[in-house]
Design goal:
alpha+beta; 4-stranded mixed sheet; globular
């Protein structure tokens, strides 16, 4: 979990019997952000970019499809996302399936920028890296041939 605690201003620290104690008016509490929250924000931000067809590895996408077909099942917006969250920084790993014909380098730059912007705006964490793996490419004809096989 991330800790976004702001250290007390040195000018507002009182000396009390040799120990430094933050003045009550300056210390307002500790904030922590769960890894799952960061993963969901990153997943939603990545999916907002046109050209991202799906997220996750092949096996992960199969399990997600089964979960969504179960009554009451919800899509997992953090699928294909793993994060490492520290006190003030985070790192994100994404696994994507992209649409055929989309310039992959441009798509990944747009995904990376949207993920960084969304995370920094919503969490105030510094995003040190966004690693992206393109695991597959979606071709329209693949959907039709899958349906015929079933």
């Amino acid at each position: 979990m991330a800790d976004t605690t702001t250290p007390p201003n040195p000018a507002q620290v009182e000396k009390s019997g040799g120990a430094e104690v933050a003045a009550p008016a300056t210390h307002r509490g500790r904030t922590s952000i769960a890894d799952g929250v960061v993963a969901k924000i990153a997943g939603i931000a990545a999916r907002e970019i046109t050209g991202v067809y799906a997220m996750g590895s092949g096996a992960g996408r199969v399990f997600a499809a089964v979960r969504q077909r179960v009554p009451g099942g919800k899509p997992n917006v953090a699928q294909g996302v793993s994060v490492e969250v520290g006190e003030k920084q985070c790192a994100v790993d994404l696994a994507l399936v992209v649409d055929y014909g989309v310039p992959i380098a441009e798509l990944l730059a747009a995904v990376r920028e949207n993920v960084v912007t969304s995370l920094e705006r919503m969490t105030a964490l510094e995003v040190v890296e966004v690693n992206i793996a393109v695991d597959d490419i979606h071709i329209e004809d693949d959907d039709e041939s899958d349906r015929r096989i079933e």
